[in-house]
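To: structure subgroup
Subject: Chain for Friday's discussion

All,

I'm putting the inputs and outputs inline so they're searchable in the archive.
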Amino acid sequence: MVAGVAGFFLFLLIEFIPNPLSTQPVLPFKLFSNRTACSAFLMTFLHGIATYGAIYALPIYFQSIKDQKPLKSAVSTFPATAPTAPFAIVAGITMAITGKYKDLTFIGWSFTAGGFGWMTRFQTGTSEWELIVAQIVAGVEVGILFAITLPPIQASLPVEELETATATYAFCRSFGAIWGIAITTSLLTASVSDKLGSLPEAAQPGLTGPTVLGYVENIKNLPEPIREQVRQMYADGLQKGFYAFMPVVV
């Protein structure tokens, strides 16, 4: 982890500071010298962290806590994905008509805070309607913010920089996705691993720290009361992930 963080900052130094090693930088500093573009790049990165972290966490929740098979868990995330395209279209049309994006940005991040705040309540006994409504709220923000983050970047930079700016936009979202998935998996694995010491019976069927992610489909086969205790471990671990995303989206 230390090497990764050090490498990241070294990459930024090489990219942003003129030097013989980077005559044609992938991320030119001039793209980030514009305040509007820089803010949009940052929003894209943060949006990638939260969105992809949640997308990765939700199927794990449905499989480990609700005993759903992989296909059913994908169907259960439909409330989060269905609103994305319609609200992206609405946001795009609204921005095209009004020429404004700041109000839409505020609305999008408000839905983000509301949706992720609700997801922090996901536990073993969470009702079906709560799961659906929270995902719908989060899905609305995904659509809005997907649609409105790129146009401000392209509008605020010179025409000759648009190709590089668009590629940088895609990089920021993908880079955020890496962080989001890493946060989800790290917190879940660490949380469950820490609690397995108090439940040695769970290790006998094969649940250990390294197998936390791959074991979700087998939880339903555990005997009681171990099964409920393991479910609670997974619920607590996933909940920590949603809490970790709150500073990102607020």
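Points worth raising on Friday:
The radius of gyration is 21 Å.
The chain has one domain: 35-249.

D.
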